[in-house]
Every structure is written in C-alpha cells, then in structure tokens.
Design a protein that fits this description.
about 30% helix; globular; seven-stranded parallel sheet
Amino acid sequence: MKIRVVQWTTGPVAKAAVRGILVHPNLELVGAYAWSADKAGKDIGELCNLGRLGIAATAKIEDIIALKPDIVLYMPLVWNVDHMVQLLEAGINIISTSNFITGSAYGEANQERLQAAAMRGGVSLYGTGSNPGLASAVVLAATAGTREIEYVGIHEAADCTPYQSAQTWRDLGFGMAPGTAGLQEAAKQRQSVFREAVEVMAEALGVTLDDVAFELQYGVATKDLDLGYMQIGKDMICGQKSIWRGIAGGKPVIEFSLLWRLGDAMEPDWAVHDGHQVEIRGVPGIKLSLTYDHPADPDDFNAITANPAVNAIPAVVQARPGIITVDELPLVTSASVHGQR
C-alpha cells in the first residue's frame, strides 16, 4: 500500500515537493490544499506547472480531512497552528518546512497544543528543510567519525535572489532601513527556528547548553535593485549575516551562521558559496562542504528544501506519536532513482 499524501499549498517549495511525490515509488498524491480561494478547484498539476494530474485543489480543510490521507506536507508561507491541530487530531501526520523544528518558535502555548494534538491523534509532527533539516542530519551523521567534540559549526552563505518570496524577505527586514525600530527583534523572531536547531543538535550530542546567543548584521544596497518580484531601494537592507551560538562552559559549542543576500550590489560585499561549510572540531577534526547545483528547471530551485521532507515521509509515518526530531529518525535516503520506478 502506498502512503497517501496531501500537499498543503502550491508555492515555490510545494511545487518541488509535488514533483518529488510523483516519482517516489512508495507515495501517492491524493489531494492538495490551496491557500488562496482563486486556486480552489484548479488541478494541482497545472498549479505546479506539471500539466493535469486529475487532482483538484481545495481551500477547505474539511475536504483535506475527509480524504483521510496518511500525511500532509505542510508548506505555507505563514503557518496556522489551528489548522495543524485539526489535522493532527484527525489522525493525520504532518511534515512541515514552515519555520518548524520543535515548535518552540511558535511560542510555548502553541508548542504544547501541537504536542497534545499529535498525541490525541496518535500521529507524528516533524520539521525539516535544507537548513535546518538536511544540514543537521548530515552533520550529526558526520560526528560519528570523531570524539571529544569541541565545536560544531554550520555556515550557510547564499545568493537568495532566485527565491521569489517577497513576503519572506520583508518579514526579515529586507527592503527596509537598517535603523528601523524593532527590526532586529523581528528578524530574530522570524529566524528562531535556528535556535530550535541548535537545541536539537545539542541534545543529540549530549551537550547541556547554558544559553543560545544571537547576533545580526545588515548589508545595504549600493543602488536601487529591481528583483522582479520586489524592489529594494539604495541604502536599504539587501543582505543579512546572523549567527546562532549554543554556549556551554562559556564557549560556543554549536553554531549556525547564515549569510543571505539579494541582488548584485551590496555593502559590505559579502562573498557567498551557495551551500554549507561545516566544521567539526574534535579528534580528528572534520570539514565538509555541501554545495548544490542549480537545476535547469527554475521550479526545481527549491527541491533542496522540499526533498528532505518528501523522502522523510515513510519514516515519519512509522515514528512514535508527538513532535519528533531528526536524531530520532532512521537514516533517510532518496527512494526515487532515475529509471528505476
């Protein structure tokens, strides 16, 4: 029996997820949720630039629950805890790429609601993506090659211009003046999923943290930038460099650094490497470089975020009830090998 999957929303990451579902030998796409009413009733394949698939999207959560899917791939731009609770209580597993690893970024009360709903429904709730998500899984696996770990760092630096989600960038402060009141706190809150990732890695490695510290710097545009999907004026924010540090014994032990930029004219002119550089200090030390080829099809640009969610579906369906994290799952691999379906 194939695992019955519903795709929640049809944005950039979701389009890549649908492609992944369709070629996975153990999955069956049975429904789709459309965030906007104008997409309701339209074929999910056409919404994802794949041609007709014979599956109409709906804007009603009741329709999704009535399908009785095994799992929902939850990928909205802005999450809705009420919707998540409804799905979980209906006995539907969830994998989310929507700023979710443990749910603490949603607030303690919402995290508790989600955990309780999953337990009532007897299902699992799992968060992943490229980073945090895939990067954490790869790095935790690599730590098996060392001992006496002093430091684990995941350093991301990317030109994010192809990610056409203006609302995401505005939520982080892009396009605004660096001195705008409350800007840093808003960016910290929007990024707090990385605090969750630091805490999960610490627990997996047996580290007791004293604190998780946060730092943020901005890069500004040296000219007006027209990205097509948004405009950024000269001297407005077009880049940011942030660091989340897990502190133990007064020293950083686990670190996620993030450098994101939009456009081609920024000061400081921070260099990017489009991937993740990993440093594990131990005996012996280990260094990894994770870089990602840019696909020929623009709709696959976000596959590195979508695929870890799609490929985790069988493991999550089999997992214990409640909120689960990457260190609890068995090894997750791709099951779609070209020409083998």
